[in-house]
Amino acid sequence: MNKLTHFDDSGQAHMVNVGDKANTHRIALASGLITMLPQTFDMVMAGNHKKGDVLGIARIAAIQASKKTSELIPLCHPLVLTHVSVEFQPNQETSSISCHVRAETTGPTGVEMEALTAVQVALLTIYDMCKAVDRGMVMDDIRLLEKSGGKSGDWKAPK
Amino acid sequence: MNKLTHFDDSGQAHMVNVGDKANTHRIALASGLITMLPQTFDMVMAGNHKKGDVLGIARIAAIQASKKTSELIPLCHPLVLTHVSVEFQPNQETSSISCHVRAETTGPTGVEMEALTAVQVALLTIYDMCKAVDRGMVMDDIRLLEKSGGKSGDWKAPK
Amino acid sequence: MNKLTHFDDSGQAHMVNVGDKANTHRIALASGLITMLPQTFDMVMAGNHKKGDVLGIARIAAIQASKKTSELIPLCHPLVLTHVSVEFQPNQETSSISCHVRAETTGPTGVEMEALTAVQVALLTIYDMCKAVDRGMVMDDIRLLEKSGGKSGDWKAPK
Amino acid sequence: MNKLTHFDDSGQAHMVNVGDKANTHRIALASGLITMLPQTFDMVMAGNHKKGDVLGIARIAAIQASKKTSELIPLCHPLVLTHVSVEFQPNQETSSISCHVRAETTGPTGVEMEALTAVQVALLTIYDMCKAVDRGMVMDDIRLLEKSGGKSGDWKAPK
Amino acid sequence: MNKLTHFDDSGQAHMVNVGDKANTHRIALASGLITMLPQTFDMVMAGNHKKGDVLGIARIAAIQASKKTSELIPLCHPLVLTHVSVEFQPNQETSSISCHVRAETTGPTGVEMEALTAVQVALLTIYDMCKAVDRGMVMDDIRLLEKSGGKSGDWKAPK
Amino acid sequence: MNKLTHFDDSGQAHMVNVGDKANTHRIALASGLITMLPQTFDMVMAGNHKKGDVLGIARIAAIQASKKTSELIPLCHPLVLTHVSVEFQPNQETSSISCHVRAETTGPTGVEMEALTAVQVALLTIYDMCKAVDRGMVMDDIRLLEKSGGKSGDWKAPK
Q1: What structural domains and CATH numbers belong to chain F?
Q2: Chain D within 8 Å of C12 (Cβ-Cβ)?
Q3: Which residues of chain A carry a pLDDT beneath 70?
Q4: pLDDT at E20 over 50
């Protein structure tokens, strides 16, 4: 049995009807990481503290991308974001930078896709700014960590 | 020494000057994958062959996203794509679907970001359509596989 | 007397003030059709059932376009869609495909333009995908069928 | 046999490869019309000559929409328009207004979709501005009239 | 002490959390002006009354731009505008045209940026349409005049 | 005589035909400034050197806006930018920050509007980030400084 809600009974895609859903406060947390060469990692870290602020630019790109989610994902409902924040955690040992995004809204649909889209575009922007010195960077482990609000209730990724 | 080309000598971000670069034929291949529960994988596969075509919709989303790359990535140059194709390869054993994108242009800048953006949005669209049944899906191994054209020449990801 | 509400008393265009309107549940149904050569019609129908899914792609384009309505129509208010569905009805006898769209929102303004925009872009997308074999396709009878909600109440197109 | 070029040999949609096509001067002409109640027609005509310029606004909307064509039509190539003009011809006898658009580019792909998109959005904008007084307006006969340039050569709609 | 609310305690940019703010009716008024050569001014004025309607086009551009504010300003919240109007006041003596915009919404955030963005794009559009005859036009005195609604209450620019 | 090139002989707006214009290297420089309270100026300057980087964010917003120019200005031709840079010059004495933008392309149309749009959005972004502490900031003296390339040749603003 196909329970994918983005398709109607005849298997055709539609934008799911959320007209009867209550407006609730919704939060989603998502994360992902990009791994690079040690010398690329050092360059990004150097910039972060003085000039050449790669992570500052990736943060802005992520926030802007979260606002474009319903343009990018065909069956996503448009929604009015009330909060987006983006944190980066560098890991010297693995030459990687992880990105955590928190998105919030008050409305009838969740903000999981907004949080995930922001993570993806943050990582892509880091890739773009470093690709001239390191084309082999890899983006991994992009996932939802947690969501709350709405009829389906709270959810946390298993550890 | 900071060699990140998206910053000028004083460390400020700019859109790199490509006015002197030759127009060459440029190709980029990128890939990534999404891993899900076996029952989610089965639902996607069932739909792919008759109704509820998750991958068909993800393919369209990916092609459209490739055209929005310079809107999403702050320092990307706008460019005129001449070709985009998107392939999915399901792997029953790992309950995962990999996505390969090929992007092409003739111009002064490469299409790596367009190929990577298309991969990201393809995976995000699969996530969106299946999230009601499986919130724990993970996107991994998003990377450039190959690029050709331009002054920096050809590049292939090491195996 | 000019009663076109998109103009103020001095005849200048404005985005009509809807700040005092109540948020009500609003529905609009619109339709239109595209007529083609019999052999083009057969190609589209063939694709619809196995490969080369013209109508599946047109459906996605229509849903995405409905979200862009206020960008396309200058004096349209932005609104938050709660539902969009798109149906195609092929007519072998007339070699034509009709498209029906249903759009819904809860808010101070109607969704007629969202439904009509989705119909237009669905038909355009069919045209685009078939134009290499049939440039003479014609789009006709694009109209509102029905709307409900709001102060002006319900309306149905006369038969 | 399926010859729809927007699908590859396995029936999957792609953005057709135009990298080998020559850059030629391309022109497309498209048209369509909207029919309304006589009193609506009179209102539009009154505005056109002094205040409440419905057609002036529809013209601007059409030109702007032509620039958004590749965002709206999933498999359209982005292209750089070199000219767009929009003419309206009112017909008092039939209470209808026809719209003619001419679009031009120099490039590897045609501008038929840009011309048709502009016609559609011109008619939709007229509908939007008049819908408060006339919801039953109908848009018809939207078609390509003529195109020139490119490998497939010139084409004219049969009378 | 840094009280700029668009940065968190560690100095990183974020989209400020407005989830707890009440939905109130909000109004913003903004203005600005463009000064040109006397002969350019005369051309614009001539067009405004019969053909070549520079100000009519600038008004439409301004209204459309107000809807794009959250796309243009990185940390702006998306919001649903309920009213936008744009007035131009020509001043023959100084060969300048001033633009006043009023924007309204009901929501948790203000519409100051929407009003200011509309003013800027109105002036830019006038510049664009006249630049072939007068490249030296200057835009000045772009400012918020007044705002009401929200927790911070009413504000008026000092005379 | 009306010589405004954005109107045809009958006074109707069109996107000017540039199909016959040569592709030349084109450069435009534009500038503008925003004046604020001394304490606001100090906050921005503090952030610029350590945390809360207002100008870094305004620079990114300006570059992204330059890519959206033809979406914002109705009769602007789309073009492919080859370079954009944005500089800020703080003036402690006047509590103002000036913004200089340089935009370049190789094509048939100039980049004046792209440079001016970037300046406007840079200033608007500074306004947005500081408005919680200073609503009375004013943007002035937004103008073209210089342009080169194209049939109309070089131009410099008189001092």
Answers
A1: 24-149 (3.30.70.640)
A2: yes
A3: 1-2, 48-51
A4: yes
Active-site residue, from B53, B128, B141, B154 = B128
A56 in F contact zone (CB under 8 Å): yes
- Output the 3-class SS for chain E: CCCCCCECCCCCECECCCCCCCCEEEEEEEEEEEECCHHHHHHHHHHHHCCCCHHHHHHHHHHHHHCCHHHHCCCCCCCCEEEEEEEEEEECCCCEEEEEEEEEEEECCCCHHHHHHHHHHHHHHHHHHHCCCCCCCEEEEEEEEEEECCCCCCEECCC
Whole-angstrom distance, CA of residue C128 vs CA of residue A113: 30
C80/A contact by beta carbon, under 8 A: yes
Mean pLDDT, rounded, of chain E: 93
- Calculate mean pLDDT across residues B70-88: 96
Interface confidence (ipTM) of the complex: 0.96
Do the chains contact at A78 and C82, CB–CB below 8 Å? no
- Per-residue model confidence as pLDDT tens digits over A30-66: 999 999 999 999 999 987 555 678 999 999 999 999 9
Catalytic annotation, residues of D: 128
Return the residue in A5, A7, A12, A15 with the most chain C beta carbons within 10 A, the one to mutate for interface testing.
A15
Q: Which of residues 101-140 of B touch F (CB under 8 A)?
A: 107-108
- B56 touching D (Cβ < 8 Å): yes
Rg (CA), chain E: 18
> pLDDT for D115-128, tens place per residue?
999 999 999 999 99
User: Is residue B114 part of an annotated ligand binding site?
Assistant: yes
